[in-house]
Structures are given as C-alpha cells and as structure tokens.
Amino acid sequence: MRAILQTTDITDLSDQDIPSIFLEVVERGRSLTAADGRVLTDLRPDAPGTYVDRLAEETTINGRGMTDYDLPAAPDERTPRLVRRCLAYVCACLRKAQVEFGDTQVKAYVSLSFADTEEALLTSNVTFCTPLPDVRPYIPDLEGVTDAAVAEISLEDCSAWSCLPRCLSERRSFSVPHLRIRKRVCAGGRGVRRRLVKAGKWSALCP
Fold this sequence. Notes:
By secondary structure, this protein is of the alpha+beta class. It has helices at 2-6, 20-28, 54-62, 75-101, 155-160; strands at 30-32, 38-40, 64-65, 107-114, 122-129, 151-153, 181-183, 193-197, 203-206. Helices cover 27% and strands 19% of the residues.
C-alpha cells in the first residue's frame, strides 16, 4: 500500500474527483434515524429496516462500493484514480457531518481489495459510523486485522492532509502521513487483499 500511495498523485483533490452520484450524496448531507443513527440522507432506504444496534444501522445504510466501472483495468491507471475518489468522497462527507452534527465523532472506513474474479480488479467500499460507548466497535482490533482491507479515517486525518474537507472547491493539496507495512500470504492464494488501519496517524496491514 505504501507503493500505491507513493505513486498516486493526491494533490489538488476536489469535488471533480468524486463521481456525480456520490457528489449528490455529499450535497444532500446527513440525517438522524429513529434510533439516532447518523446516516447519509440520500442513502436512506424508503422503508426503515431492522438492525442489531446503531452501529449496524449506520454501517449498513452508509456503506457503498465506490464507482469503478468507468476506470481502466490497468493497475497503474486504475489504482490512483480509485484512491483519489475514495479520499475525496470520505473527506467531503466527514466535513459535512461536522457541520451538521457539530462534532467530529463520525469515522469513515475505506476498504480496498482485489475482486475474486479472473481479472482481479482493485475495488473499494466506503462506509461511515459513529463510535459509541455502549456499542461494540465496528472493528474491535484494527491492529489485529490480517484477513481483509480497511482504513479508518477521521476528520482530523483529513485536516492533516490540508484543507480538502474544508474547501474542496479551492483545490488545495495535501500529503499522506507515513505508512508502515506488514505482509502475509492470503489463505487459498486467491489474489492479494490489503488493509490500511489507523495507528497514530496511519499504518498498513497487507495480508
């Protein structure tokens, strides 16, 4: 993952990096469910669902796979564009959450993995949730994750990269904190899955 980020140009991120369908999600903002779950308004289902707890409600409703059908298959072209999309979308949503809820409690989780297909194209998924003292963590032990790929991102992380979450339209740049990487072989040998986890600023686990 260090190699991916070192070779990805993540300067001048703006709303133009966000696919139109996700930009609409950002613009519509967030709302509260009957259980006080913080969810993206545009992603709320027409009929309320049944969830184990608020965590499950938030991660389920807010979770979506990032648009990638229009990206080229070649890794050197696909990867940087997919990463830019995820980071721009995440930071825009986190900034919106701060404005609407008045705090920075909402966290984003971005997963990166290779599809279990012959092409093994890189895909991603993004979701959001709010850590609560009376609810189990979304991922109890980030440091111990070795069989999947996820990055936990806070608004503070976005701020460390510069002002992207505050002013997407101004097209200012940011840099990525240092990454530490560990590897292991995936069971079954069906491709490689990578996971970013938060440790201080950033660290990376790569199964």
